[in-house]
Amino acid sequence: MNWIQVLLIAAVITLLAYLLRSRRSARAKAWVKVGYLLFAVAAVYAILRPDDTTLLANKLGVARGADLLEYALVIAFLFTTLSTYLRFKDLELRYARLARAVALDGARAPEGPASVPPADR
């Protein structure tokens, strides 16, 4: 197994573990912002010095720098996809709770003889 394979598998497992934790804390949101910032800096560096990505790729056991960048983009895509999924899942739960609260707040007891349960008639 190559170093890059171990690194990529570790990155995927780390992303899954991170995304399965609660994302509501400010600390978790800060780490996401730091990660995006580091990814952007790395992207600018790769654009300015493309030969360095090939050197790094060769050290990690990958033939070309473009392949290494593709692997990094796959990891970033997985992170973004899972993060968006978890955010929508959380929003769906919040909307369901809100709808339940609104329904309970506006609920009224039925009026008339139909409101008496059948056992008491």
List the helices and strands and how they pair.
Elements: H1 3-20, H2 26-48, H3 50-60, H4 65-105
Helix pairs in contact: 1-4, 2-3, 3-4
In short:
With 121 residues, this protein is an all-alpha fold.
Can you put this structure into words, describing what you see?
Keywords: Membrane, Transmembrane, Transmembrane helix. The protein is an all-alpha fold and 121 residues long. It has a domain at 27-105. The protein has four helices and no strands. It has helices at residues 3-20, 26-48, 50-60, 65-105. Helix 1 (3-20) packs parallel to helix 4 and helix 3 packs across helix 4 (65-105). The protein starts with a helix and ends in a 16-residue tail after the last helix. The model has no long low-confidence stretch (mean pLDDT 80).
**Quaternary structure of the protein:** single chain
- CA distance, first residue to last residue: 77 Å
- SS summary, helix count: 4
Radius of gyration: 25 Å
Helix/sheet category = mainly alpha
How would you spell out the order of helices and strands?
HHHH
What helical percentage do the residues reach?
over 70%
Residue windows where pLDDT falls under 50 for at least 5 positions = none
Mean pLDDT: 80
* Overall geometric form: elongated
Number of strands: 0
Q: For the report, how would you describe the main beta sheet?
A: none
Strand content: under 5%
Protein name: DUF2304 domain-containing protein
Organism: Mycobacterium adipatum
Keywords: Membrane, Transmembrane, Transmembrane helix
Transmembrane segments: 6-23, 30-48, 68-88
